[in-house]
């Protein structure tokens, strides 16, 4: 039976175009949530009356807290999806994230802010884990680079959601709402998106296609062990390293570009937080998003036309140059910085696509969810370093310091991937065999 081809992608057995389209909508909303707090939170912290000199540290702390939850839960969410299917895990994640998001601006203390962020984090662990895993299920091996490119394109379009939401407080205040009410309505609209996406995922994603009696008896512990053992394969290990750096790239850009611009606008230009967000942060976030739109499709094609290790090398090399160049920025509102952010968007999404294509290629189907869950854990460590460590560097050294750090780390991944590429040219390493205890299932 000939499998359907959709958007240039050869779909996997049992997957329809409707399944893939439903998944892409879920990706759109998932990606929007991934960046929304980074863009909206600076304005909320200002409205809550938190001192400017502590905002960077609090931003880093809240992001680090979320990443700790990711580290604890991503592998488990992936292993659980290997048993019960991707759909229920994805639906749960979208719904819980939407609820937590709607509650977030109703916090009247830092402790409540932390509690609501934990709610968002638990939902996001399931949501983001499935966003990365499902694309590996839905495409054949030959089309996996393009599938990840289309997924990244949709994720990039989802990155327009945060700046669109960021424009709403100014609209609401213009209609007579006070600053806090404007934030609450904005977050409520954002929360509703997750509930809509949860319904579409419930109806549209493919059900679990195959099961066995043994699969029901297979323990989460053994499935997790199978995912962890996948790192013995050198290419899978590189994908974990690339996940660490690519997610850190995204986190640093998302967390500190807007914060840098809002602080600069309120301190140096005398703007209100809402004005600084609208006039300074939104256009520059959009420049980064525009670069990512271009980069997602380019790297999707490149990853299918060259080795995926080479694609990782290309992406990390470009990112090393771009993030290191932020050292030269003293005025983030300078016109040339917009061009730099455009190229940064290309670099960060290229690292994202190439790393996902590589792990999707190497992850055994039997415990793909667990393997990609650990890929997500590696990414969470990168985000943890980028946000918590970046917050300290931002506050204590300079706003450019987090970017320079990741320029150096990208260069390290570039050297690693070039070394592995040379080794593969001399003879392909033997992949890690699938452990006998792992039961082969296909889940969606």
TrEMBL record:
**Residue ranges the record marks as coiled coil:** none
Matching Pfam families: MFS_1
Q: Where is the Major facilitator superfamily (MFS) profile domain?
A: 19-425
Q: What is the topology of this protein in the membrane according to its UniProt annotation? A: Multi-pass membrane protein
**GO cellular component labels:** membrane
- Spans traversing the lipid bilayer: 23-44, 56-77, 89-107, 113-135, 147-165, 185-207, 237-262, 282-302, 309-330, 336-359, 371-395, 401-420
Q: Which domain of life is it from?
A: Bacteria
Extract the Gene3D superfamilies matched here: MFS general substrate transporter like domains
- Keywords linked to the UniProt accession: Membrane, Transmembrane, Transmembrane helix
This entry's Gene Ontology molecular function terms read:
transmembrane transporter activity
Entry annotated with the keyword Membrane: yes
**The name this protein goes by in its record:** MFS family permease
């Amino acid at each position: 039976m000939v499998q359907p081809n959709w958007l240039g992608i050869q779909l996997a057995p049992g997957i329809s175009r409707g399944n893939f389209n439903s998944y892409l909508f879920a990706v759109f909303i998932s990606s929007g949530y991934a960046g929304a707090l980074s863009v909206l939170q600076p304005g909320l912290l200002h409205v809550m009356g938190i001192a400017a000199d502590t905002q960077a540290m609090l931003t880093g702390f809240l992001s680090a807290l979320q990443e700790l939850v990711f580290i604890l839960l991503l592998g488990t969410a992936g292993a659980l999806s290997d048993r019960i299917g991707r759909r229920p895990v994805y639906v749960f994640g979208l719904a819980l994230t939407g609820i937590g998001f709607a509650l977030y601006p109703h916090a009247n203390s830092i402790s409540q802010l932390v509690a609501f962020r934990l709610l968002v984090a638990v939902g996001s662990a399931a949501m983001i884990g499935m966003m990365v895993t499902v694309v590996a299920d839905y495409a054949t091996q030959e089309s996996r680079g393009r599938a990840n490119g289309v997924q990244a394109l949709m994720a990039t379009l989802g990155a327009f959601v945060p700046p669109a939401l960021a424009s709403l407080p100014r609209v609401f205040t213009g209609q007579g709402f006070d600053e806090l009410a404007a934030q609450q309505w904005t977050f409520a609209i954002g929360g509703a998106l997750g509930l809509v996406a949860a319904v579409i995922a419930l109806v549209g994603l493919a059900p679990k296609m195959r099961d066995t009696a043994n699969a029901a008896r297979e323990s989460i512990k053994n499935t997790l062990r199978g995912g962890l053992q996948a790192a013995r394969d050198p290419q899978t290990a590189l994908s974990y390293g690339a996940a660490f750096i690519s997610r850190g790239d995204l986190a640093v850009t998302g967390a500190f570009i807007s914060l840098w611009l809002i602080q600069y606008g309120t301190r140096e230009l005398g703007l209100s937080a809402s004005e600084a967000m609208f006039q300074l942060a939104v256009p520059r976030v959009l420049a980064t998003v525009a670069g990512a739109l271009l980069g997602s499709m380019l790297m999707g094609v490149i990853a299918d036309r060259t080795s995926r290790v080479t694609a990782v090398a290309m992406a990390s090399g470009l990112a090393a140059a771009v993030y290191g160049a932020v050292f030269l920025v003293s005025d983030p509102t300078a016109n040339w910085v917009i061009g730099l952010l455009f190229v940064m968007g290309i670099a960060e999404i290229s690292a994202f696509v190439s790393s996902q294509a590589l792990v999707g290629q190497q992850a055994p189907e039997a415990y793909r969810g667990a393997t990609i869950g650990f890929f997500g854990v590696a990414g969470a460590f990168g985000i943890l370093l980028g946000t918590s460590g970046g917050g300290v560097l931002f506050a204590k050294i300079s706003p450019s310091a987090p970017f320079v750090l990741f320029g150096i780390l990208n260069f390290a991944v570039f050297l690693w991937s070039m070394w592995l590429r040379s080794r593969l040219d001399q003879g392909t390493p033997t992949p890690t065999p699938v452990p006998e205890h792992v039961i082969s299932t296909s889940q969606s």
